[in-house]
Specification:
Length: 180
């Protein structure tokens, strides 16, 4: 993508700000929903939001709000999917010989015990561990982690985890022409 293409893209987004915010929100949300998270990489949206804000195309406050809301809502959707369907998936996969060594009652009980003791910290730290952040909310739901604890630790994990990319995009955007 050359400078002319970037300028054209910025012009389109300046004329369609609400669409840009919607795209950022949806990207942030979808990247955390179990299953879809393997197809969408949130970092692209987080960095793009920061870059577009640094270029003056989007308002940084709105970028932060839509990206944080998307991440929090997506993580909560995954948590509740895990809570509702996780046991059924566990039981289904434990019937297959290939998965029986990993997915069994003993390992399930270990997972529950782990999430009771260390789940909150794991939820927070997962936001800094790439693909681990895609599955942790789902697994938290599967192991019935206390929702209030999940929400609080996830909230702060999203703030810091997504925030690092917004900051990188914002300050990196100041110097994007050097990279191009």
């Amino acid at each position: 993508m050359n400078t002319v293409d970037v300028d054209k893209l910025i012009e389109i987004l300046q004329n369609s700000e609400n669409i840009a915010y919607l795209i950022l929100f949806m990207g942030s949300m979808v990247e955390t929903i179990i299953g879809l998270s393997f197809l969408f990489f949130g970092e692209v949206f987080f960095l793009a939001g920061g870059i577009l804000a640094s270029a003056g195309t989007l308002d940084i406050k709105k970028v932060i709000i839509v990206l944080y809301l998307g991440g929090i809502i997506g993580d909560n959707i995954s948590y509740f999917i895990g809570r509702k369907y996780g046991i059924k998936l566990y039981e289904t996969f434990s019937k297959y010989r290939l998965f029986k060594r990993i997915i069994n009652k003993k390992n399930y009980d270990k997972g529950v015990s782990y999430f009771i003791k260390k789940g909150p910290v794991s939820v927070f730290l997962a936001r800094f561990m790439g693909p681990i952040s895609w599955i942790t909310p789902f697994i938290s739901g599967v192991y019935n982690m206390n929702y209030k604890k999940f929400f609080i630790y996830n909230f702060f994990g999203v703030i810091f985890g997504i925030g690092q990319f917004i900051v990188a995009g914002y300050f990196g955007g100041k110097y994007i022409n050097l990279f191009l």
